[in-house]
């Protein structure tokens, strides 16, 4: 089995935060069926998500996600082979980031405090995964 990890960013359509619970419900349900684990972060109208699992399942899931009309402007940041899951405990963990996180985490704040800064994230390889892991550990 080829295990991969995929990270992307996207924009919530219309900043309609009321849509997020239904997105999470179907994510957790479908990921359980498809052997996908991961984490979804939301900040100021932007999503940052990591999906991990068997290559075909991750690619099929990402392609379904990209067609979802509740968000747009999906940008793939990384797709890499991994030897083990980093988010094994989460069918899909979720955190909404706000000013309290920016104040507590000044090192990471520039990357998320006004929404995810794609240029800054791209300029610092590894930072997206570092943030996703940090916030997933904070959930335990
Ligand atoms: P249902 O949840 O029953 O939905 C049926 C269809 O209607 C889908 O095409 C869905 O896109 C669409 N839909 C549902 N509700 C609405 C609505 N309120 N407005 C417009 N269209 C709607 N899916 C995963 O499997 N794993 C993930 O990790 C995952 N992460 C996501 C992250 C984000 C940011 C977003 C926006 C979506 C994510 N999804 C994820 C959801 C994915 O896009 C599909 O909606 C879902 O996988 C389809 O599940 P379902 O077949 O059970 O359909």
Automatic annotation (TrEMBL):
GO-annotated molecular function: blue light photoreceptor activity; FAD binding
Kindly give the InterPro entries that the UniProt entry links to this protein.
Acylphosphatase-like_dom_sf (IPR036046), BLUF_domain (IPR007024)
Record-annotated BLUF domain positions: 3-93
Q: Mind telling me which Pfam families this protein's record contains?
A: BLUF
What name has this protein been given in UniProt? Answer: BLUF domain protein
**Native species of this protein?**
Candidatus Symbiobacter mobilis CR
